């Protein structure tokens, strides 16, 4: 459920590409312009299977996912991320209601079993205010809806 005091919403949906490819949609839900960091680098959560409750500088990228199988066990993050530094173009202005969508292939990051169904939640975090690029970006954390039945190929 969306928090009305937070000007950003994150929503997950199945991508037409299928498999473990999901569309992540960030939306400015406020009436004012909001600057968002849209680098959308994917990283692991601090505790496998648990969504973080606050952004922690330097410890997480912008997107993290919690994925559980039908057995309730969380899938571990499988790669060592080498993220690129933030650049000015990563900070984009969003008018009221404007969104940014990106397809993320979760199979690049998690060890899915073919034919299994999974439950997925995402968190968008930003702890960089963008001031070195001359902007004032929104800082905080929002959690997505839960997407049920993601089918790995």
Summarize, please.
This protein has strands at 8-14, 21-28, 34-37, 42-43, 63-69, 91-94, 99-105, 117-126, 140-143, 147-151.
The CATH class: Mainly Beta
Instruction: Output the number of helix runs.
Output: 0
CATH topology: Immunoglobulin-like
* Secondary structure: number of strands: 10
Mean pLDDT level? 85
CATH-scheme architecture = Sandwich
C-alpha-based Rg, rounded = 15 Å
State the end-to-end CA separation: 30 Å
Q: How many separate structural domains?
A: 1
How is the main sheet built?
A: 5 strands, mixed
Low-confidence stretches: none
Report the portion of residues in β strands: 35-45%
* SSE string, helices as H and strands as E: EEEEEEEEEE
Structural class label: mainly beta
Structural summary, described in words:
This protein is mainly beta. It has one domain: Immunoglobulin-like (Sandwich). Helices cover 0% and strands 38% of the residues. It has no helices and ten strands. It has strands at 8-14, 21-28, 34-37, 42-43, 63-69, 91-94, 99-105, 117-126, 140-143, 147-151. Strands 4, 5, 8, 9 and 10 form a five-stranded mixed β-sheet that branches. A three-stranded antiparallel β-sheet has the order 1-2-7, with no helix packed on it. Strand 1 (8-14) and strand 2 (21-28) form a beta hairpin. The two termini are 30 Å apart. The model has no long low-confidence stretch (mean pLDDT 85).
């Amino acid at each position: 459920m969306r928090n009305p005091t937070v000007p950003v919403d994150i929503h997950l949906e199945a991508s037409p590409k299928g498999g473990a490819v999901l569309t992540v949609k960030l939306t400015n839900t406020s009436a004012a312009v909001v600057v968002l960091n849209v680098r959308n680098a994917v990283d692991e959560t601090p505790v496998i299977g648990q969504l973080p409750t606050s952004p922690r500088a330097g410890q997480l990228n912008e997107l993290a996912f919690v994925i559980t199988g039908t057995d309730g066990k969380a899938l571990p993050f499988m790669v060592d991320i080498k993220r690129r530094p933030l650049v000015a173009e990563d900070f984009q202005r969003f008018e009221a209601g404007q969104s940014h969508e990106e397809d993320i292939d979760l199979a690049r990051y998690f060890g899915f079993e073919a034919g299994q169904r999974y439950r997925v939640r995402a968190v968008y975090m930003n702890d960089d205010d963008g001031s070195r690029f001359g902007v004032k970006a929104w800082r905080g954390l929002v959690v997505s809806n839960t997407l049920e039945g993601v089918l790995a190929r």
